[in-house]
Amino acid sequence: MSNFNIEDFPHRRLNPLTGDWILVSPHRAKRPWQGQVEKAVSEDRPKYDPGCYLCAGNERAGGKFNPDYKGTFVFTNDFSALLTDTPEGKIDEGSLFQAKSESGICKVICFSDNHSITIPEMELEDIRKVVDVWCQEFEELSSNPMINYVQIFENKGAIMGCSNPHPHGQIWSSSSVPTELMKETKTQKEYFEKHGTTLLGDYLKAELDKKERLLVENEHFVALVPYWAVWPFETMIISKRPVQNISLLTDAERTSLADIYQKLTIKYDNLFEVSFAYSSGLHQASTDGNDYPEWHFHMHFYPPLLRSASVKKFMVGYEMLASPQRDITAEQAARRLRELSGVHYKHQTNK
Ligand code: H2U
Ligand code: ZN
Question: Is the minimum distance from the CB of 160 to ligand 1 under 6 angstroms?
């Protein structure tokens, strides 16, 4: 007879989207914490910063000027990691020395002309405009024969290496399908071939049933802590309807996506009463022209904060060398996030 349970004992959990395993050590979350717990210093920023290269009318690198935009603004990254005119070619010196040329287009998206706010503080209609820009950019880039994958993402907070607090995201689109997406394509395809349904569709059904890891639900989307979360407060937004990419979302679904993006990030800000840092991004099918019925649109949120506004989780030591590991379980993280108010802490009046 076994007394094993995942609330008390070390175990490994499978990430069915990547095939990776993660070590969970729930017993360690009970050990005393003697580190510092700092209060966040609230940083009030101006709506316009003359020194910001993303604010309207300001100068960027290379002497370019931003237009006097309102709402969203997209431009080609002045320091693009990928270039459109890379010559085709490859190095093939046996199995140990392989290289291939790579082309692509990188863009920066300003989410708002207002320098002082981020997504959780923006109005729903303005977040909807961000979703619309994602759709437009996706459609334009995916129709380019050179582009086979469009990675839309947001790097938020200095702790994540983000260079500027002005609300913005990026798009790196490339001729190759990047590694994480290759893994997710393989697992979803295998699942779809075996079951005739999408992996995330079935996963979502099970999670809606269990309710343990759910955070926010609206008509078309669910935000949850995945069973296999690595980062302490890692989450996903999954569409209820399996769609291969954002261009297939209906008008109502686009508004629902903006709504759940706002609700989830408000919870994040409320957790430590700080503008919550994360890397987030959209995962969708390759744009190589083939059909990917197994692909189920979703967003990942990878936030580094662990215990307070300044104490982050480090992926070092065992995690770099062997396997990712966490102490607080996905269920505990979900409980904490679920219990938080849906009103942004800066707007709560009864404090
Ligand atoms: P972060 O989101 O990681 O801070 O990156 C901002 C991007 O803005 C970064 O990729 C680009 C950088 O190359 N950038 C410009 O395109 N023009 C500038 O004048 C400064 C920064
Ligand atoms: Zn700015």
Answer: no
Give catalytic status of residue 168 as yes or no.
yes
Q: Which of 119, 163, 172 to mutate to test the pocket of ligand 1 (most atoms within 8 A of CB)?
A: 163
Does ligand 1 lie within 6 Å of residue 108's CB atom? Answer: yes
Torsion-angle region of residue 82: left (phi > 0), alpha (psi -120 to 50) or beta?
A: beta
Q: Write the pLDDT tens digit of every residue in 246-257.
A: 999 999 999 999
pLDDT band at 91, cuts 50/70/90? very high
**DSSP-derived secondary structure letter, 246:** G
- Which residues, in sequence order, are CB contacts of 49 under 8 Å at separation 6+? 55, 115, 166
Any ligand 1 atom below 6 A from CB of 218: no
Distance separating alpha carbons of residues 215 and 262, to the nearest angstrom: 13
Helix, strand or coil, per DSSP, at residue 282: strand
What is the model's pLDDT at position 183? Answer: 98
Q: Assess whether the C-beta atom of 314 lies below 6 angstroms from ligand 1.
A: no
Which residue carries 């692509």 as its tokens?
A: 104
Report the pLDDT value the prediction gives residue 29, as an integer from 0 to 100. Answer: 73
pLDDT at residue 34, rounded to an integer: 55
Candidate list 115, 166, 168, 220, residue with the active-site label: 168
Q: Which residues on neighbouring strands pair with residue 104, listed in sequence order?
A: 174
Q: Which tokens hold the place of 259?
A: 């709504």
Over residues 131-147, the pLDDT tens digits come to 999 999 999 999 999 99
